[in-house]
Amino acid sequence: MRFQLLGPLSVTDGRDVVVLPPSKPTALLAALLLRPGAVVSADRLRDVVWGEEHPTTAKTALQSCVLRLRRLFAKYGIENQAVVAVAGGYRIDADAETLDLLHFRRLVERSAAADEESELYALRSALALWQGSLLSNVPSDLLHRDEVPRLAEERLRVLERLCDIELEHDRCREALVDLWEVTRVYPAHERFAEQLIVALYRTGRQTEALAEYRRIKGHLRERLGVDPRAELQRLELAILRGEDLGPAGGARGGRGAPGRVVSVPAASPVAPAPAAVPPSPAPLPTPPNRTVPAPAPSAVALAPVTPPAPAPGSWTLPTVPGFTGREQEVSSLVELLTTCDTGVSSERAPFAVLSGAPGIGKTALALHVAHLVSAHFPDGCALVPLTHPDGTPRGAEEAADELRRALPAGPGTGRVLLVLDDVVHPDQVRPLLTAYACGAAIVTSRMGLAALVATHGGTVHRLGALDPEQSQALLTTVLGRERVAAEPGAALPLATACGHHPLALRIAAARLLTRPRLRLADYAGWLRHDPVGRLSLADDPLMSVPQRLDEALKRLPPALAEAHLRLSASPHEPLTAARGAAVLGLPEESAEQVIERLLDAGFLEEDQPGAFWTHDLLRAHARRTAGSPSGHAPALLRPPRHGEFPQRDGTRPAALR
Q1: How far apart are CA 192 and CA 9, in angstroms?
Q2: What pLDDT band is residue 533 in, cutting at 50, 70 and 90?
Q3: Omega into 308 within 30° of 0, i.e. cis?
Q4: Minimal CA–CA distance to 549: which of 656, 626, 613, 640?
Q5: What are phi and psi of 42, to 5 degrees?
Q6: What's residue 420's pLDDT?
Q7: Nearest-CA neighbor of 49 among 25, 68, 71, 72?
Q8: What pLDDT was estimated at residue 191?
Q9: Among candidate residues 280, 399, 414, the one with its CA nearest the CA of residue 345
Q10: 31 and 48 in contact (C-beta within 8 Å)?
Q11: Would you say 199 and 162 are in contact if contact means Cβ atoms under 8 Å apart?
């Protein structure tokens, strides 16, 4: 049997894991295991279990806790790790075979004497022992105050050393997975931020590297009132100059304090360098040396964020933690928004349309790109939802009034970036593009908005499901590399069960994070039995695939919604106009119009002209809805009524207009 401290306190025989219930004996056991082989005084144990103001009966109660702990050991057959009473306190003996904390320290100690390849393997093995939130089931304020930070620091030192080795050997992409995660958990940790910036720059992602520097700089100024340390400032300057950072010098030296990751030429004391982002589609081996002045950003989020609205001058657009994939779209959008002429007004703002199915990641991509290019829009950035919570569209004038109140630069002046989210009709967007023609816009919509593109130009990005590699990368980023690596063959089946759908993947990952004992393979098997119904989080109705798809279906005209349900129930793949006509009981010309409407609304995808298919989650949701008593099943059992679909003479009734 083995005790596990590096996560919830638990006992395992190598196959099954028993997480101990939150109780006083559990707190007592944790205090003893944190000092294995050492005598822990009775006074210390009483403070751990009852707090510094323990009751007068605590001495007797402590003996009772020890007795209960011994009974627990007997229950699980681990009497050989007995709690030993000694003068003044208690002791429990353990070694690397019976306590994961000692196993972790032994691996780290051995790694120091190994070659770098063996060291890397040993450090990875050590980090894999960490299994979730430290001592989350131990009810002791004293341990969480004094011991948990100390243990967390041990892990951070190992992770820092591991990333040093990976960067030294140009394994930047491997390091990025760990660095994205740890910099979000520890946003003020300058060393990890520095490593992340180097890894991004070396992989040709100069824009993101500079955005990461701005993130740590803004965080330090806002929370602590200080600037980044000199090494980070020199690193930013080197990136802005397009310098080759070279190999990571000194990473091998100084085991206790890992060496520098970068070799940046020393310079005279540097004031904070311009925070602008030169346009560079990734990947780019040697980024161009182009900078723009660094005005103070003034970004205002008009998205549903917690009121009150932030004052101008603070960057408050919602962030997208662990954003992965969509590299081609990110590169194209960054280039569009950063290479347009910034000094000359025009009649139309450069803009891009991001369209696709519900939950496919349109808003996430827009916000991610907005953060990357924020330095190019000194007069403000705004996230403007153009749909009310009930799904009804907002008027352009209502959105324009909100923008006038929020942005320091009024319409027609200044350079602003608008993220116009969840647009339903082109008329919501056209007045805003005209009013803010000096800036730029990213438009997200489930509709294709072809009429808007026809009148105002712009680029279009139709988002589909993620590639299998991107899906696995997203799961790894959210769940952590250790957990995914523990089941090397489970991530792909899980991603497949989620249909490689971004919202579904994040919901599945969130559920797994809250259940550290749940295996990925078991969860994927459970999910396959009802992929739509089981992709929900109970504490947030917005984080629900069925809720999102129900809402999308309600936005459609009733006849079009029923057509979707009928076509999704059909086994035909790919769907053609001829097959659609047979399912709907319509002539081919009318069926083609229905299919075009569903395609434009994001309910169908098109690989080749005339050949369409439905995403697996949309198909499963349609079948589930059709079989539900509250769904559209009764209407599916009868022929279409007059006026519900295009008629055989080719006319289009109001229901489909």
Answers
A1: 28
A2: confident
A3: yes
A4: 626
A5: -65, -35
A6: 93
A7: 25
A8: 93
A9: 414
A10: yes
A11: no
**Residues 185, 139: one domain?**
no
Torsion from C-alpha of 361, 366, 368, 374, nearest 10 degrees: -170
Query: What single-letter DSSP state applies at residue 428?
Result: G
Amino acid at 489: G
Q: Which of 391, 425, 456 is a domain's end point?
A: 456
CA distance 460 to 410: 27
Q: Are 89 and 196 members of one domain?
A: no
How many C-beta atoms surround the C-beta of residue 551 within 10 A?
17
Average pLDDT over residues 615-621: 83
165 and 275, same domain (yes or no): yes
* Full domain range(s) for residue 573: 556-656
Residues 138 and 2 in one domain: yes
In a domain, 156, yes or no: no
The tally of domains found in the chain comes to 4
**Residue 411: CATH number of its domain:** 3.40.50.300
- Residue 315's nearest CA partner among 362, 366, 403, 377 is 377
Residue 279: which pLDDT band, with cuts at 50, 70 and 90? very low
- Claim to verify: residue 332 and residue 272 sit in the same structural domain: no
Number of H helices, E strands in the chain: 27, 13
Q: Is 627 domain-assigned? A: yes
pLDDT over 90 at 564, yes or no:
no
Structure tokens at 572: 């035909």
Task: Give one DSSP letter per residue of 304-355, joined into a string.
Answer: SPSSSPPPTT---SPP-TT----HHHHHHHHHHHHHS-SSS--SS--EEEEE
Domain termination residue (choose one: 416, 432, 456): 456
In terms of domains, do 274 and 342 share one?
A: no
Q: What global pTM score does this model have?
A: 0.50
At residue 111, does pLDDT exceed 50?
A: yes
Question: Mean pLDDT for the chain?
Answer: 77
Contact between 374 and 297 under an 8 Å Cβ cutoff? The reply is yes
Largest Cα–Cα distance of the chain, in whole Å?
A: 98
Structure tokens at 23: 């109780």
> Which of 530-534, 641-645, 652-656 is least confident?
652-656
Between CA 622 and CA 629 the distance in angstroms is 13
Residues 24-70 have pLDDT tens digits of 889 999 999 999 989 999 889 989 888 877 777 878 888 888 888 88
Q: Of 586, 329, 178, 152, which Cα lies nearest the Cα of 337? A: 329
pLDDT digits (tens, 9 = 90+) for 183-196: 988 899 999 999 99
HSE (CB half, 13 Å, CA atoms) of 634?
2
Residue 439 is predicted with a pLDDT of: 85
Does a structural domain hold residue 547?
A: no
- The reported pLDDT for the residue numbered 87 is 87
Query: What is the distance between the alpha carbons of residues 164 and 249, in angstroms, rounded to a whole number?
Result: 10
138 token code pair: 């131990």
Overall average pLDDT of the 573-600 stretch: 85
Question: Which is higher by pLDDT, 345 or 419?
Answer: 419
CB 632 within 8 A of CB 626: yes
Distances 91 to 68, 85, 331, 353, 570 between C-alpha atoms, Å: 16, 7, 59, 65, 68
Say which residues have a Cβ less than 8 Å from residue 28's Cβ, sequence separation at least 6. Answer: 45, 48, 49, 62, 65, 66, 69
Confidence (pLDDT) at 255:
39
* Angle, helices 616-626/558-569, rounded to nearest 10 degrees: 110
Residues 253 and 350 in one domain: no
* DSSP-derived secondary structure letter, 99: B
Whether residues 645 and 588 share a domain: the answer is yes
